[in-house]
Amino acid sequence: MAKYTPMIEQYLEIKEKAKDAFLFFRLGDFYEMFFEDAKLAAQELEITLTGREGGAEEKIPMCGVPFHSAEQYIYKLIQKGYKVAICEQVQNPAEAKGVVKREIVRVITPGTVMEGKMIGEDNNNFIVCVSHFNDTYNLAACDLTTGELYETSGQTSLDFIIDEIGTYSPVEIVSEASTYSYIHERMSQNSSTILMTEWNAKDEQSVKEQFTTKLWESLSLSSQHCVALLMSYLKETQKRALSHITNIHSYERNQYMTLDPFTRRNLELVETVRDQSKKGSLLWLLDKTATSMGARLLKRWVDKPLMNLNSINERLEVVDTLVQQYIIREDLREKLKNVYDLERLVGRISYGNANARDLVALKKSLEQVPALIEICNDSGSDNLSSIVHSLDQCTDLKDRIDEAIIDEPPISVKEGAMIKEGYHDYLDQLREASVNGKQWLAELEQREREVTGIKKLKIGYNKVFGYFIEITKANINLIPEGRYERKQTLTNAERFITPELKEKEALILEAEEKMVGIEYELFNDLRNELKFQLPRLQMLAGIISTLDVFQSLAKVSAENEYCKPVMTNSYDLNIKDGRHPVVESISKDQSFIANDSLFESGDQNILLITGPNMAGKSTYMRQVSLICIMAQIGCFVPASEATIPIIDRIFTRIGAADDLVSGQSTFMVEMKDIQVMTEKATAKSLVIIDELGRGTSTSEGMSIAQAVIEFLHNEIGCKTLVSTHFHELAHLEKHLPFLKNYSMSVKESGDEVTFLRKLIKGAASTSYGIYCAQIAGIPNSIIERSYLLLNTFESRDVNNDSNGLIDNVVRETAVTEQPVVESPLMQNKVDTIQMSLFEELEGNNTEVNDKQKKENKDNVIEKELRSLDLLNITPLQAIQFLSDLKSKL
Predict the structure, then answer these.
(1) Backbone angles phi and psi of 355, in degrees to 5
(2) pLDDT digits (tens, 9 = 90+) for 726-753
(3) What are phi and psi of 737, to 5 degrees?
């Protein structure tokens, strides 16, 4: 085995404790990496790989990054999914005997980043832990930057936990070995870093001490296990007391509406599907918050709509108050603009990396609290007043900061100039000595100019030579002989010192060095004092962020003329003149067409929506979902009137997309979504299915679509919106009493088609697919060919044996009753199907001659002509009808 130098031996010993991380080993002004770490880091960071003598025969691979700019390199590695272990000198080199003692002071992972570019101001940086204990699955989520900790437990199925993971959008997931493989499989397409951890029994006592005995004992054993697992991991990586994590927010699944990741994605709640940006999402529309912590809380509200009627109504009452009282709302908003991010200030104080400017920001934020309380009490709202009732204003903390820290301190806490005059007697004495010394220097400079006659003589300072007298070479001959001692020669000047100057320099520098040390010590004392008050500040931050969310929802509601919904625990949902909030906001230059929505128990549970492409079916269905979500987070809704029941879960089957990673086709993805709906939907759920039955043959797709609709109607009874291009399904209205046909209206004028985007009763007869292709700019040759093929296919559809047979079977098996014939034209189709089937079976016996076939065809055409309703046919339909007859003849 190679014999290494003591320093490399120390490196290898420490590296053994961080095998799965890059070890940033502090050497002077650099973090160095060696061996395999160096090779990989050089590649990932695109930095130079060099070598270093380390005692072995060959040079050791080495690369490094400057200490002062290490943050950008660390975050680059973190974004790639790596861990970084920071190894610092923990011993004064002057006191060291041999190699300076070094230790890992922190391990940085995606979920434990405390500051920098990886943390968005308006987004939490959650790390999630999943555990399996006592036959239940449990989840704990923590944002280390704010100290928030949430937990939910007791789930017998991992599916709910997977849904919950999506609400936190964690950057890192940790789990035990028993759940790691399943989590990794289910979350493989998620951007989170997934790591495995193990429970260390020795951490149990320290985790318990993190929280009050009452709080800890209020948790179930499975909850305690999950929280302890996460806290153990955080303590192991952070190597310090996490004094800002003192509270645990426990909740159960029935407290919030369940929104699986696909539903949140399809409804674009917090980001758009197209480019994953906030702009264009519901959150973007609702976010008029004045503080970063308010923005983060609003996102949590959007992700977790309430299920408790009283809690929803309390929120609505506060929003209503602020909608009605413009001055109160604007006063509240103006005060909130002066509040900094208290939650993250608390995190930095806890970590010991808050600087003097952070404390000044805290002070300025606390100065706004009395005015916020007064505004809420003046609002006349009991609910708004109760939010600030008995609120701890933390006045003593504000006064302590104001007493100690100047108003505009420097960024660094190790350069002094941040403690107020009069705060510390000895510091004031040193300052006076320093000021007097500098005054003496100014007087010396003036005196030497007069003695030598050199007007450009000046006294300067640098860290290498200290204070010096500088004279340009043009004036060297004017210096009296023996007056100065030469110290340094420059290109255009000479630098000198005198015994008197060096003596004064020692006094000045000693005073300044002592001042910096004392100021840093005083600042640390104040910061540590604030550490013991963090729970008070966190509670205050939570109330202020809640006020911010309320004013944001009120501002959006007032500016967009939304209405206050009436919330109920019943089944019925009634929306008058509903609009899609985001589409309406983005298309302000166009008038949004409002539509009603009605679901009534025992009358109308399912809306089967047919109609052309681009007519607004998808927009309409999404707006119903968004209105329900907005109501349950406590916001007004885009409608003239709205009665909204509590929805326990929203399911969406929207859009066509392959799951290439798992090898699933569009149709298989759709069927998986349908499976989840049929398994988990209840009568209180809202189901949205856009274009049910795509991705397979027409006959099979229509059969599956009908069967799904019948199941939702007969077995579940949930509120359901289904859009389809299978117009043949419209007959279900005759057999399913709680299903009603609706369509998006269209206006035809000659060859022009106008989509009115208005929902009307009744089924549509066509989808205008080729027309949509035409206005999309498809070449005319393709459009003309498409119409020709359409006529051919529709002609075949009437006479085709197999397609007709399948269609007939679907209609006959829809219900136990006899199939209903909607029109003479459909009756003719049935007759033709039966005739064609008979022909196919008996054709080989030549019992039907050509004359009989011709007579049958003539009879079919005659019946079609007689059934034609000339008063209710559009020009396009007439042209297609004539073209069909021509093809048949």
Answers:
(1) -105, -175
(2) 778 888 999 999 999 998 887 766 666 6
(3) -65, -25
SS (H, E, C) 725-753: CCHHHHHHHHCCCCEEEEEEEEEEECCEE
Does the pLDDT of residue 45 top 90, yes or no?
A: yes
CA-based nearest residue to 344, from 537, 140, 572, 117: 537
Q: What confidence score (pLDDT) does residue 846 get?
A: 46
How far, in Å, CA of 610 to CA of 760, rounded? 10
For the chain, what percentages of helix, strand and coil (3-state, to nearest 5) are there? Answer: 50, 20, 30
675 against 847, higher pLDDT: 675
The label of the residue with tokens 């052309």 reads: 612
Please write the tens of the pLDDT for every residue from 616-660. Answer: 888 999 999 999 999 999 999 999 999 999 999 999 877 544 343
The full DSSP string for 453-507 is --TT-EEEEETTTEEEEEEEGGGGGGSPTTS-EEEEE-SSEEEEE-HHHHHHHHH
Set out the domains of the chain in order of their start, with CATH numbers.
6-108 (3.40.1170.10), 126-255 (3.30.420.110), 287-394+533-559 (1.10.1420.10), 425-516 (1.10.1420.10), 566-767 (3.40.50.300), 779-889 (no CATH)
Strand, coil or helix: 763? coil
C-beta contacts of 180-186 below 8 A and 24+ residues apart: 182/158, 183/130, 186/158, 186/162
Give whole-number Cα distances, 362 to 402, 409, 530, 607, in Å.
Answer: 10, 13, 11, 54
Residues 6+ apart with CB under 8 A from 859: none
Give the model's confidence band at 32: pLDDT under 50 very low, under 70 low, under 90 confident, else very high.
Answer: very high
- Write down how long the chain is: 889
Q: Quick one: average pLDDT of 766-794? A: 77
The residues facing 563 across adjacent strands are: 637
pLDDT value of position 818 = 34
The sheet with strand 573-578 has its strands ordered as: 566-568, 641-645, 573-578, 595-599
- Do 290 and 545 meet the contact criterion of CB atoms below 8 Å apart? no
Alpha carbon distance 37, 20 (integer Å): 10
CA atoms within 13 A on the CB side of 652: 23
Is the pLDDT at 840 greater than 50? The verdict is no
* Cα distance between residue 581 and residue 667, in whole Å: 30
Residue 305 in 3-state DSSP?
Answer: coil
pTM of the model: 0.82
Ordered alpha helix ranges (H), 532-616: 534-559, 581-586
Look up residue 261 and give its two tokens. Answer: 């990741």
Please report the pLDDT score of residue 303 as a whole number.
Answer: 95
By C-alpha distance, which of 110, 113, 87 is closest to 100?
87
Are 85 and 22 contacting, i.e. CB atoms less than 8 angstroms apart? yes
CA 428 distance to own-chain centroid: 50
Q: Are 286 and 298 in contact (CB under 8 A)?
A: yes
Q: Mean pLDDT score of the chain, rounded to an integer?
A: 85
Assigned token pair, 844: 């080989």
Residue 796 token pair: 């075949």
Q: What is the DSSP letter of 443?
A: H
Tell whether the torsion through CA atoms of 636, 642, 648 and 651 is positive or negative: negative
- pLDDT over 80 at 452, yes or no: yes
Structure tokens at 596: 């009603």
Contact indicator for 686, 648 with CB cutoff of 8 Å:
no
- pLDDT tens readout for residues 281-301: 999 999 999 999 999 999 999
The alpha helices in 16-129, defined as continuous H runs, are: 35-45, 70-79
Q: Strands, E, within 3-157: which ranges?
A: 21-27, 30-34, 50-52, 60-66, 83-89, 102-108, 126-133, 136-143, 148-155
Q: Distance of alpha carbon 132 from its chain centroid, rounded?
A: 26
